[in-house]
Amino acid sequence: MRRSGRRPTRTASANRTRVSSLARHDRRHLVHGFISPAVTRDQGTLTLARGRGVYVWDTDGKRYLDGLASLWNVHVGHGRSEIARAAAAQMKKLAFAPTLLGFSSEPAIELAARLARWAPKGLTRVFFTSGGSEANESMIRLCRLYWRLRGREDKYKIVTLQRAYHGSSTGAASLTGLTTFHRYYEPLMPGVVRIANAYCYRCPLGLRYPECSVACADELEAAITREGADTIAAFVAEPVQGVGGVIEPPKGYFERIRAICRRHEILFVADEVITGFGRLGTRFGISRWNVVPDLIVFAKGVTSGYLPLGGVILREELFQTLEDAGPGFALHHGFTYSGHPAVCAAALANLDILEREKLVAHVRRLTPYFARRMNELRASALVGDVRTAGLMGAVEMVADREQKTPFAMDLAVPMRVRAAALKRGVILRGSGDNVVACPPLIVQREQIDIIVDTLAEALDEVAREL
Ligand code: PLP
User: Fold this and answer.
1) For 409-431, what is each residue's pLDDT tens digit?
2) How many whole angstroms separate alpha carbon 105 and alpha carbon 87?
3) Which residue ranges make up each domain of the chain?
4) Which helix (H) or strand (E) holds 160?
5) According to CATH, what is the number of the domain 46-76+359-465?
6) In whole angstroms, how far apart are CA 65 and each of 115, 413, 438?
7) What is the pLDDT of residue 225?
8) Are strands 48-52 and 55-58 parallel, antiparallel or unpaired?
9) Using one digit for the tens of pLDDT, what is the confidence trace for 282-300?
10) I need a labelling partner for 26 at 20 to 30 A (CA). Which of 48, 308, 353, 370 fits?
11) Which residues form the pocket of ligand 1, taking CB atoms under 6 Å from any ligand atom?
12) pTM over the 0.90 mark
């Protein structure tokens, strides 16, 4: 397959042989976590070969518009050599420095300082992990640790929301409020208290916005009364629920949550794994509300997915408690790759791009256009609701619009819509009853048009089949 601007190194037939042998090995050896093993066995997977900007190409040379920023993470788009160069230069200079054992590297130190500048005022200390699930595991342990060091032994429970996604390692999956992530894996971590989320389309409290006066925020207060504030360490939420279906709480929600947390001495954690680094047109998503959390959990956009990185940013006072515990104390928590030098160098190069190209402001400018175009999809009979926040959007599909009846699971309607879009060269995601779009932050209007127009065609195709 001849690629523009490159010398062909293989004949087309040799490439076809290689591609089909790769596909065979994929079916035989590689496990794909969120896709049915029976489906990958029968239908295979798509092997991607290269990417540039908002586009990726498969091993047959077919081009796709990456309408999901790969996995909500490739903020600056594909093919940024400057990130690759930064990581390679660091690898040549110093392979590794174990932060667990009190060593540091220049990129890890620089990145921690840079993230503290990105974070809301007062959040000053950074703990690194290799991804979002590990970051949430760390968050759970840091919150418990904080209260234990302050002599509040019984404050260990974490309050979390229905439909939340916080990862799939055991602690993070226990915080996750999507039952598909619990089946087969129970018992979950003890000490998780789940409350109603702010899902206005299907209000778990059976109320209507705005007459409800955002009663879902008061569910936190009710849970605290039930469980006892002395038993609760923290409340965690995504500023906008991503995997759960792009669910943004109404105005005033997090302000009330923040006040309740403060009143009952409960830490407030924003899981910004998807919403951080510009996705909502602000540096961190929680800034859309007028509140500052005690901890921020981050991952994905911090490196735009070029290398794996996550972490937790802590309010200064939390860290002081650890420092005040004296020389006999250590966290006894951390990971070999916490603060990996090459990964941190890649993150710094990624933040350079985000800042230099003013991508946060770009998202802010594009947000109304993305919302308007996505909302046109309400014209399809399959669509019950359209929700957008910044550059993330979901189309929720229903069998009956009046009754809001979901489609039977075995019809796999969102996955069929996703497949119909993929066939037309646009990558989207089926997630629960939703099809989700979340393009790289560098996306332009014309590419938003392609995403929405293709999704409209895909919806039509599936509607005709049903
Ligand atoms: N938290 C949120 C809000 C997420 O969306 C995700 C992943 O999508 C995670 C945590 C888990 O991150 P990871 O897949 O890097 O472990």
Assistant:
1) 999 999 999 999 999 999 999 99
2) 13
3) 46-76+359-465, 82-356
4) strand 157-161
5) 3.90.1150.10
6) 30, 21, 11
7) 97
8) antiparallel
9) 999 999 998 999 999 999 9
10) 308
11) 131-133, 136, 165-167, 238, 242-243, 271, 273-274, 299, 310
12) yes
